[in-house]
Amino acid sequence: MTEGVAFEVQERDAVYRAIATRRDVRRGFLDKPLPDDLIRRLLCAAHSAPSVGLMQPSRFILIRDQGIRRAVHVAFLQPTNEPWLPIPGNGANNTRG
Known about the structure:
This protein is an all-alpha fold and 97 residues long. The chain has three helices and no strands.
């Protein structure tokens, strides 16, 4: 944003409404693919979002193939289902084994 440029009241209200009604999504995904134009807009917004030191460290991968998506999901679940184990010698007791 350019310094000294103010948002209109309706623009500010829209941002506040988006923040107040934001929810994490963990289920209820649509079976229908999102349109390419919407994907582009979402990725552009995500890349423009603030980050630590404005370094934009996020990387996004769009996976449309259902088989690959299932494989990624299974791979994600494996470490998250493992118990927390200490790493010997580092003094920490809250790391995954």
